[in-house]
Write a structure and sequence with these properties.
The protein is α+β, with helices and mostly antiparallel strands. The chain has three helices and five strands, in the order βαββααββ. Strands 1, 2, 3, 4 and 5 form a five-stranded antiparallel beta sheet that branches. Helix 1 runs antiparallel to helix 3.
Length: 107
């Protein structure tokens, strides 16, 4: 996955506020969901999961061909069930949709 403002894609960022005791379970659910489900969905481009050093904040970043691709997957029964599990393990999370306005990299 290469970040570029030249592509008309939908970027989704989600942050999870977790306790140290629920971190491993949340990461397991996120990892398996991306690998076994999301990566196989129409419109999926790629994703990354980031974790702070204390393992109390987890952020995921994904890109989709279109907003509609992401919203279709988000509304599916499968993802609603997954999101209920993630909500139970975290103090809160919300997917936020972004568009890329600027990119900076070493050339």
């Amino acid at each position: 996955m290469r970040i570029s403002q030249d592509h008309d894609v939908q970027t989704v960022m989600v942050t999870y506020d977790v306790s140290f005791g629920t971190y491993e379970e949340l990461m397991g659910i996120l990892s398996s969901t991306y690998k076994d489900h999301l990566a196989k969905q129409d419109g999926f481009i790629g994703a990354a999961i980031h974790v702070n050093e204390a393992k109390t904040r987890v952020a995921s970043y994904s890109q989709w061909d279109t907003r509609e691709h992401f919203l279709s997957v988000l509304r599916s029964e499968h993802m609603q069930a997954v999101n209920r599990k993630l909500a139970d393990l975290s103090k809160g999370f919300e997917p936020v949709l972004y568009e890329i306005k600027q990119v900076y990299s070493v050339t």
